[in-house]
Amino acid sequence: MGPFVRPRDQRLQGIPPGGVLLLGPLQSGKTTLFGQLCGKGQEEILLAGSSHTAVCGKRASTWFIDVPGVTTLFAQSEEEEVTVDALLALRPGSLLIVADARNLRRSVALALMAGQTGLPMAMAVNFLDEARLRGLTIDLQGLSRRLGIPVAGTTAVDREGVGELVRALGEARPLSHRAFLPPDLSQMLERMAGALGEGSNASPLLALLLLAQDKLARRLVSEEMGPEAESEVRRIAEEARAGFGVPPEVLATDLFLAEGGAIASSVVQRTGPGRSWLESFGHLAQHPVWGVPIAAAVILTLYFVVGVVGATWVVDWLNGNVFDSLVLPWLAGWVSYIPWEPARAALMDPDFGIFPAGVVLALGLVLPVLLFFYAAFSVLQDSGYLARLSVLMDRLLRVVGLNGRGVVPLAMGFSCVTMALLTTRILHTRRERIIASLLLLMGVPCAPLLGVMLIVLGPLPVSASVLVFGWIGLQMLLVGWLASKLLPGQGGDFIMELPPMRLPRIRQVARLTWMQTWRFVLEALPFFALAALGLFVFNRLGGLDALQAAAHPLVHGLLGLPDAAVQVFIKTLIRREAGATELSHLREVFSNVQLVVTLLVMTFLSPCVNAVLVLFKERGARVAGVLLVFVTVWAVVAGAAVSLLCRWFGITFE
Amino acid sequence: MELSRDQEHALETLLMDEERGSDLEDVASCSHSERPSAEVMALLLAGGLVEMSEGRVTLTAEGRGRAQGVLRRHRLTEVLMANALGADRKKAFDIGCRMEHQMLPEFVEAFCILLGHPATCPHGRPIPPGRCCVSRRTVVESQVVPLTALRPGERARVLYIQPRTHGRLHRLTSYGLSPGVVVELHQRQPAWCIRFEGTELALAREVAEDIHVTRIDEP
Predict the structure, then answer these.
(1) Range of the domain at B52
(2) Terminus of chain B with fewer CB atoms < 10 Å: N or C?
(3) B162 and B123 both lie in a single domain
(4) In sequence order, what are the residues at sequence separation of 6 or more whose Cβ sits closer than 8 angstroms to the Cβ of residue A388?
(5) CA A162, CA A110: separation in Å to the nearest integer?
(6) How many domains does chain A have?
(7) Is residue A268 part of a domain?
(8) Smallest CA–CA separation between B111 and chain A, in Å?
């Protein structure tokens, strides 16, 4: 055995040898599967952004290593080098090939190449459900027989087949399938293998990489066998390449791909009818003409489910029958035992108390709306409709300097702006990310805010809703268009994978809905309570009156709002939906026009604390600062404009 | 099912035998001297391209189609060599034997149009007609076209991707779209939607323009 060679890549150092290395093409769901394998007990040595560096985690006593996706082991890019480095220098005990069931050819080709290491291997055929929906049936046992390694079918996103995969890993074996190599190539490989001798890392793969003049492989030889051996293998490679028409790496890649294709076509069967009605629906949904009424119908349904059923019926019922008649009186009973008046008031004051203005508003008003919204949004996501909407919206989003991919973060913004800011990562260029962030901050109301907006707008005439949402949409188009003209750089490519259309699965939808709602409860409830408490204290100290007096010219004069609007805006700055709930709480003192103007200013106003934190983290201090100042000034100007126009034309929304 | 050289040869020989029929005139210069081996026959039998009846091997419908394709490529090459380039018939036959396996099916049509839809080979044997012969097309369309030239429903093989940015090539190959892959175009508006193997992608026009393909004739 030679000495242990440290991996060249800093990020790989510190991972013990003998682990399971996950290898697979890009987009094969490798990282998701890795997450499922290591679960929450993941001990990450290296924290890194998804799939660009190696990540390491543990399940029971086995280490798993996730490296960037590759289609060949002849490294071309930096990410591919990390993978080859891990394979050669990390000394994994076994390999787990994560194959893409939708595209088996390249995955099998990779397995054939990785098999040249002689390491025990197992294979996960991932995305099995999508392949099935596309009418592809894969003979997993046949594949296992052809390759001579255990194969398990998985659907990583749904945690399906993970147990089976762990069992398969226990039976990992070296590949028994021998890829056919033309005589001249195998002769060269033998010569190279002869030069390597019995080195601890010697394998047909190493010989192949040396023939391809791979610099990592050469470094390994030089470190393990000395510089003389290195110059010897370098000489052999040069000699071999000189006598060869095609570079050996090109020849080998073609051979593995051809062999992979032959194996794949022998185990994949196209079955089922050519087109299901769901698939036809999917095509209609992205059709330039038919897609539009479908999108309109989907959005109207969404509005009905969230705005009417959730925000009106359920909220009314909950408040009438649960909170106002049972919970609050019950809480008041307990609070009355507290001997100190300020504490009692801090808890139960109808305007600023922690319970009525904090907890009950969050649970009774925001939560039910959220639940409906998240459920509806999860249905759109799980069914594959969202991707079709991206295709349809591509042209429109180009106006604002984005492309169809922008639909995902923007639509996500209607659920939670903070999460949506994180999702802007899927956009390819910095310019697109800045524009998307700007639109999210400025115009997109998150689900809690949207919910309360719907509650406030509900009793008003429809024209008020039309004005509010029409104005928001118009502003977004205008600002996005301006930004796309002013910001330097190029737009990104629109390349988007379309998942198959399917009927939404109740379990997945329930899981997504639950996860998101629960996160809201954990994150927002303390904010609601603290905001109520802070405002209560501020008010007792006389701060609110002072601030209202100071802001009077701006709020009353320019925006034409009652002074109470100040406390709505303060809460808005803490959490947008907290401000909106405050507004629905105080609606008696507002006229209808004032409600409309306040809602607009709130939507345009700065986002919640979390979103601001994420914004700074994702976009950097300079860009984030500029965006926030712009959005705040815009909010006041746009609000004033609407207020003046309404007064001018005598619009009252009564 | 991809056929090996030997398998294609075997199919072609069967078709030639049939063509000769009871006519025992043996034109040594236009048929293969070696007979297909038992192994090759077994593979064809398993693949459903030939069948055994009454101790005789005959072509199935699918096998006949494949055999006609091979023979067509063979005899078109002979016409090119002997009639257009002036090679002798023996040499033309030998070159035909090689080209019949190597010529990409998608280029056969252009080849046939350029030669003017010849009906017979230099030995006077019939050339199985293609679709272009039936419609008597005289204009060769460029065989390598950008993806944007396809009509919905058409299938094409990716020949090469000439990206304007490196990132674009990387993203396309990361979805498994690389030379050799057969794609089917589904829609052109508002974005180009293609399907290959089990993947469906939507592409902007600029991206689709970078992907160069050649149309595949329906079999």
Answers:
(1) 5-135
(2) C
(3) no
(4) A282, A285, A286, A291, A498, A501
(5) 21
(6) 3
(7) no
(8) 27
